[in-house]
Design a protein that fits this description.
Largest sheet: 8 strands, parallel, barrel
Number of domains: 3
Oligomer: single chain
Strand order of the largest sheet: 1-4-5-6-7-11-12-13
Helix content: 25-40%
Distance between the termini: 33 Å
Low-confidence stretches: none
Shape: globular
Strand content: 15-25%
Number of helices: 15
Number of strands: 19
CATH architecture of the largest domain: Alpha-Beta Barrel
Length: about 425
């Protein structure tokens, strides 16, 4: 599959040729990550950090923008990650994985010793776990490249990759001399790397066609793509479709619809035409095997499924669609095809949505709509005291429900949602 890349330099989104010559510059990072995340993972790279252009605190001109992007999708990040502390910080801020470049390698390994900075990598694995680590095996003329691709060490790509694999879940291979040139990558070198290691391999640098992406996919290599996307030489939609294993599923891919809260709503089948309509309209569309026609969920009832993102499983034969349901999902009227409840299960998000609706469209007699900033704070204090005085399970449940309601109202009035709170809890958990 394609991992779309957002490279940051001097506070802008850029694309460079051979890692140094500016080819294009943009300032729409938020729009880009929204578009890219629909199809899959996104890589956000701080090029200034990679070049060592950091202040005393380790920040660059891109730091604020980088932090703002880390929780806007399934993001991996890299560029100048030189300490365990920095790697842990990026994970706590929302990055799913960190990409380690020059810091993974020794400057001048002696004959017979590891080419890796094992002391650093051992500590990193202990701190954030092997599954969160990607090691760059960037190469210039077959030799490992370091220091922002300005130098090489006397270690071959394959030798370095075999040693690096034990410390990471993925290897990111960039053929530097092909980077940004739009003339294709080194397929032979990518195949040699793929055959030499067992972990996930992501290929970058020069990939410039959908044929090339499909060829790499058949070799079980993913692709990190930049220049070809920004110059519209490659379509993310077409690349997504070409990476699915159509032969394995006989032209019909199972599609699981899931709510933002993780509840499974329904399952259907989609051919290429159905996927194309889903992507174009952002409404989940299937192929009816009984009627032998294309159908968009809700085209009769109006209860359509708004698609937020698509994710392919590891075997490329099943797709998970994260959706916002507009009305009941099942033809029986139930919220999900896997249960009889007519409504969505209670959750903090559902409560928050109801509160937002009450303020946006107040109904006569609505208590929620009467709560101003002063009164809701008084109620939070009151309910907090009552839950502290509650005795027994039933009383605690009752008072907890009251407190969570008023806390949710206060959050809404301050422009804070529950995902913001979950993100902060996640950050604290990952900092430990």
């Amino acid at each position: 599959m394609v991992i779309s890349s957002i490279d940051l330099k001097d506070g802008h989104v850029v694309q460079l040729k051979n890692g140094k010559d500016l080819v294009l510059q943009r300032d729409d990072a938020d729009n880009l990550i929204n578009d890219f995340n629909f199809y899959g993972e996104v890589a956000v790279i701080d090029l200034d950090a990679a070049m060592g252009h950091v202040d005393a605190k380790g920040n660059t001109v891109n730091t604020t923008l980088l932090k703002s992007l880390l929780r806007k999708g399934n993001v991996r990040t890299g560029g100048g990650v030189r300490t365990v502390k920095r790697a842990r910080e990026l994970i706590s801020l929302g990055a799913e994985k960190v990409i380690i470049g020059s810091s993974a390698w020794k400057k001048d390994p002696q004959p017979g010793e590891s080419v890796l900075n094992t002391e650093f990598l051992d500590e990193l694995v202990k701190c954030i776990g092997k599954q969160r680590i990607i090691i760059s095996v960037d190469a210039i003329n077959g030799k490992i490249a370091v220091k922002g691709w300005t130098e090489t060490i006397d270690v071959s790509l394959i030798e370095g990759a075999k040693q690096a694999e034990q410390y990471c879940s993925e290897l990111l291979f960039t053929c530097v001399e092909k980077e940004g040139c739009m003339q294709g990558t080194n397929i032979e070198m990518a195949k040699e790397l793929r055959d030499a290691v067992k972990c996930r391999v992501v290929v970058a640098g020069g990939v410039s066609s959908e044929d090339e992406i499909e060829a790499l996919e058949k070799m079980h290599c993913d692709v990190q793509l930049g220049m070809a996307l920004y110059t519209n030489k490659v379509s993310l939609k077409n690349s997504f479709l070409r990476c699915l294993d159509w032969e394995k599923v006989s032209g019909m891919v199972p599609v699981i619809a899931q709510s933002q809260n993780g509840e499974v709503l329904m399952m259907g089948y989609a051919n290429k035409e159905a996927f194309e309509k889903t992507i174009d309209t952002k409404k989940l569309t299937f192929w009816s095997r009984t009627r032998n026609v294309l159908w968009t969920k809700g085209e009769t009832s109006g209860h359509f499924l708004e698609v937020l993102k698509l994710r392919v499983d590891c075997d490329r034969d099943t797709v998970l669609a994260t959706v916002i349901p507009h009305g009941g999902v099942c033809h029986t009227g139930s919220f999900t095809c896997f249960g009889a409840e007519p409504d969505e299960r209670s959750s903090m998000e559902r409560l928050y949505g109801t509160i937002a609706e009450r303020f946006a469209n107040p109904k006569p007699g609505s208590y929620t709509a009467t709560l101003d900033a002063k009164r809701v704070r008084e109620k939070v204090e009151e309910e907090a005291e009552e839950i502290c005085e509650a005795e027994g399970k039933d009383e605690v449940i009752w008072e907890a429900a009251d407190l969570l309601y008023f806390v949710s109202v206060l959050m809404y009035k301050e422009g804070v949602n529950w995902q913001d709170v979950y993100n902060e809890l996640d950050r604290r958990h990952k900092e430990k």
